[in-house]
Amino acid sequence: MSLPNASYRLLFRLTQPPPNSPEKTPPAPGKPADAPKAPQKKKSSSLFPLIALLALLPLFLVFSALFLPGPLEKPQTVIIPRGTTVHDIATSLASNGVISNPFVFRAAARILAGDSLQAGEYLFPPQQSISDIVLMLRDGHAVVRMFTVAEGLTSFEIVSLMRNDPALTPEVTAIPAEGSLLPETYRYNYGDSHMSLIERMQKGQRDLLNELWANRDMSIPLKTPQEAVIMASVIEKETSRNDERARIAGVFYNRQRQGMRLQSDPTVIYALTKGQSTLPRELTHDDLAIASPFNTYVHDGLPPKPICNPGRASLEAALHPEKNDYLYFVADGKGGHAFAKDITQHNKNITHWLSLSKP
Description:
Layout: H1 5-14, H2 47-67, E1 76-80, H3 86-95, H4 102-113, E2 120-124, H5 130-139, E3 144-148, H6 155-163, E4 185-189, H7 194-214, H8 225-238, H9 242-257, H10 265-273, H11 285-288, H12 312-319, E5 328-331, E6 337-340, H13 343-357
Antiparallel strand pairs: 1-2, 3-4, 5-6
């Protein structure tokens, strides 16, 4: 059967190689055929990694500015007065070499602390990061100072110590009542006021006195807590030895029961100095006769007010005296006292002490 001309032409085109397409020649005998060529990939753009890097760069810079070690090479103390602005704090820290970028510090203070930084005296360690510095100022981790009040100081002497401490803000206009301050070591920060310390001392004394008075020996002849402070102040000035305080308290109570005057030298010294200085000499017989309500050589009973600020040990001794028969005591030349039950032994103790005092 013969095909139509049109069909014949179509079949002829389908069986022929495409134009300009070289015909494949079979490989020569013994020669391997050419391997098929792998399809070539299209060249893609490398902009995505660069964009990602640029996006992360600000985060890296922020991290470096906030958390990497700072420029400080050795510990540095910086005082930040009350009322200092964040801008001025940043300037001060930069001038002291604590930070190198005040702008980053201000930004960190806004983000981490809401611009709420505390005044005070700060000791910055070497290479402290800006984030740690801001948190330190936010939480007020300032230098803690110590103010020590020794037992037996007068209120005038305590205020004088405060006034000589440049880290405290002066506010005292009146000397606190004698015996109202508790001798102790107090923690405080730079810039704290005199009154803030005094109020803590007064509260400490009130709390301690209330505690000890409630548990006192009910046989002692004291009527009020204030009388306990007065007796304790005399004991405090008579001895610094803990093993003697209760014994001396017992002597004073024994003398009171027998109608004898206390005849305590420290009360005469207070009458002479008003508690504002030490006496630069020994007491004389004329001193013992001075007309003063504090002089227990010429007045019966206790002084009208305390003669110092007694510590806990003396308060405890005043409220829990030793039960003894002693009526007298005098220095023994060894830092303590010799006690006597009668005047004869007491005079012997005085003679012995005078012999030790001679050059």
